[in-house]
Amino acid sequence: MKKIWWKEAVAYQIYPRSFMDANGDGIGDIQGVIQKLDYIQELGIDVIWICPIFESPNDDNGYDISDYKDIMADFGTMEDFEELLAKVHQRGMKLILDLVINHTSDEHPWFIESRSSKDNPYRDYYIWHPGKNGEEPNNWESIFGGSAWEYDEHTAEYYMHVFSKKQPDLNWENEEVRKELYKMINWWLDKGIDGFRVDAISHIKKTPGFPDLPNPKKKKYVPSFKGHMNRRGIQTFLTELKNETFSKYDIMTVGEANGVTVEEADEWVGEENGTFNMIFQFEHLGLWGKSASGRIDIDALKRILTKWQKSLDGVGWNALFLENHDQPRSVSTWGNDEQLREESAKALATLYFFMQGTPFIYQGQEIGMTNVRFDRIEDYNDVAIKNLYENEREEGKSHDEIMPVIWKNGRDNSRTPMQWNDSNQAGFTTGTPWLKVNPNYNEINVEKELQDPNSVYHYYKEMIRLRKQEDVLIYGSYDLILESDESIYAYTRTLGDETMLVIVNLFPEETTFQLPETIDSANALLRLANYPVEKGEDMRSFVLQPYEARVYQIR
Ligand code: TEU
Ligand code: CA
């Protein structure tokens, strides 16, 4: 067992626009993050991942970068950034940035050059194509809706955008593009940052020739993952990326890798061969509402998470997460955000946090923040939500039909301002926030959570402390138990003769837990629980309350 810092770390994700506004303009900023570093450290965090802070016209809130080497004016200056980095390091924490290299903004100087003429030296920095019979070059749909191609009148060709039309895709086939990106990456690494979360990296390789995709339903555009997600040949790019940049530094890299399968784990995250230290895989995210009962499909959840746990053991490393800035809040989606909010927030936390991998906590998750429901589309900001609304209206759907979809799945659910206290605007800003605060901030806020020893916050803090105390929770092997139980997700972690047992009731009804015969309970010690547990209770068989979670140490 080789000890590695990023395996032992717990990471905290900041969406800077919504974290803390220090100057009252309604937008979170770098000075705001600096103000809250004590809070983050106190929780027990080792690594902070901050979403893009680079110059950007904010079509996709910073994921559309117009200058990789400058800080977005809304967030502050390069001096503010350097102060942040220094203060994070002073506290013994690390800072990783978001690396967005599948695309830039259409306002990036490269794209401005590229679109200016067909023979401009930057033309091939992006993906240009003539139309087909007066229409788009093919039927690929953008991930944010509509065609993945945008017509540009000036040169009468189309450019590709897998995301919004203000996010033209870079042409990774062009060696000059790659070299420019590597220079930029090393420039940041030389500043002393501790690594990157690498955005949408499984999309950089496109199917050569850009063929139409099968369209049995005769739709105008078809989901285009088969055209640009984890395509053959991507590894050539990724290996070069790693060799030219990451491999020269002691850093942490997390690839956002939708579409990567566990069979490809070695290439992506293998200890020797992998491009990244770990990846965010997406397979478990779509499971809510998929079972016949409309509840979480616990069988599929067990199958998917166990597959990743077992396949990566000794091969590579997992990034563990329930939430991020693209997903609705976990307690609203997978738990119960009303009567059982605290119980279910803690249960979900217990479920993912003690698996093998580096846990990520998304801002607000540690206080059990919930989804939001705004009635008016004007109160939403996300480009994906707006595109969806517009496209559905065009197809004849009514406002009342569309809004429930946004309430359930919209990305702004997790982007409402961080709820610090019960003062005006939840203490996030003294001005008018760029996105409305969730009206439940009187009930759910950091100040209240800090005061209540039984809060979700204190549970997270306790989980982090426990994980740091016990190597078995970091390096131990994972094994699923009670495989076919329909309510309980339970697993063990084992390292040498140490075993930890994690038990989670994933549903709002009581259920009975029965310890398998193979596990010795003689010296079992309760290390964590989200309900009071009676002393001397027989741990071989007991009733689990709604969303009850327990962690035992077996000696
Ligand atoms: O998200 C990428 C992303 O959305 C895809 O990787 C994924 O395939 C898709 O969700 C499938 O439904 C990242 C950022 O996290 C997101 O905020 C940005 O909008 C996006 O990239 C574009 O940069
Ligand atoms: Ca501000």
Q: What is the number of helical segments per DSSP (H or I, 4+ residues)?
A: 17
Could you estimate the helical fraction of the residues in percent?
25-40%
Number of DSSP strand runs: 22
Strand proportion: 15-25%
Going by CATH, the architecture of the largest domain would be Alpha-Beta Barrel
* Sheet of most strands: 8 strands, parallel
The N- and C-terminal alpha carbons lie at a distance of 20 Å
The gyration radius over C-alpha positions equals 24 Å
Number of domains: 3
CATH topology of the largest domain: TIM Barrel
Catalytic activity: Endohydrolysis of (1->4)-alpha-D-glucosidic linkages in polysaccharides containing three or more (1->4)-alpha-linked D-glucose units
Organism: Aquibacillus salsiterrae
Keywords: Carbohydrate metabolism, Glycosidase, Hydrolase
EC number: 3.2.1.1
Question: Would you kindly provide a written description of the structure presented here, covering whatever features stand out?
Answer:
- Its EC number is 3.2.1.1.
- With 555 residues, the protein is of the alpha/beta class.
- It contains 17 helices and 22 strands.
- It folds into 3 domains: 5-101 and 175-377 and 417-463, Glycosidases (TIM Barrel, Alpha-Beta Barrel), CATH 3.20.20; 109-160, Alpha-Beta Complex (Oligo-1,6-glucosidase, domain 2); 477-554, Immunoglobulin-like (Sandwich), CATH 2.60.40.
- 28% of the residues lie in helices and 17% in strands.
- Strand 16 (477-481) and strand 17 form a beta hairpin.
- The radius of gyration is 24 Å and the shape is globular.
- The chain starts with a helix and ends with a strand.
- Bound molecules: 1-O-alpha-D-glucopyranosyl-D-fructose and calcium ion.
